[in-house]
Design goal:
The chain is of the alpha/beta class. The chain has 2 domains: 134 residues, HUPs (Rossmann fold, 3-Layer(aba) Sandwich); 137 residues, HUPs (Rossmann fold, 3-Layer(aba) Sandwich), CATH 3.40.50.620. Helix 4 links the parallel strand 4 and strand 5.
Amino acid sequence: MLNLVVYNKILAAVNEHLNSEIAARYALALARHLDAKLYICFSAQHDLPQQDRRAAEDAMKRLFHEAMDMQIRAESIAEKGDPVMRISRIVRHEGISLAFISTRREDIEKRFFTGTTARKLSLNLPCSVALVRIVHSGRVHPKKILIPLKARIAHAAEHAAFTACMAHSFGSKVFLLHAPKKVTRFFHGEIALTLQDWEQRLPRDISSFVERLEKQGIEHETRFMPGATGRSITLEAFAKRHDLIIMGSSRRSLFASLMRGSPVEYVLRETPCDLIMLTPRHED
């Protein structure tokens, strides 16, 4: 299993928008749990208004003081230039293992964030990336985390480790949502299966995911929703009042989403709660 302390250097990218400061608090909590060093970074484009620059710098100061109060080793880095180039350079120079990147409000209207800073960083950074969509601007305290799972899970060990770390950081309960293909038989159509039937048909990747959570002592429940789509995931999160959704997405699926829609794209746009889309880079 992936060593949970592999995230020994965590970066939180901050900008002039409030949601980036809120997203950074997920990084704060994870850094405290893992005793990792936290890098709070801001890269200002040359044409950024002074007022926006000051807002980002103030956010960095607040986060740094919070880190000190939480006894987290932290460093603030403020630079000028293209955010993608500057953050990429910091990640490589400092050996960052995980970066938290927040979406901007205007990104939501673009199809799968095409051309946005958040998408470019998700695709290009050499470290794992947690792309955070903030829906609730209050205190970060997810107690119910929803994890939609496919039959095949890219970088399953890291996905499970990240989930376990987040659950431990906040004392959360994890709810696994598996969307298996509907079972049909010739002349009989769709067949209704019991919970026990679905559990016996659980794909190997999901069984391994569950075992990893159990080894870390994570409280969890599993729910089956045959044929679930992005809309089904958002409805489940809304109906069960989940506080956070964590979805995995490989670099390949990010590229594929440009050619066709995907459940991840729908959830990013319509999620009723905070969302973290994890793009893992560590090998299983």
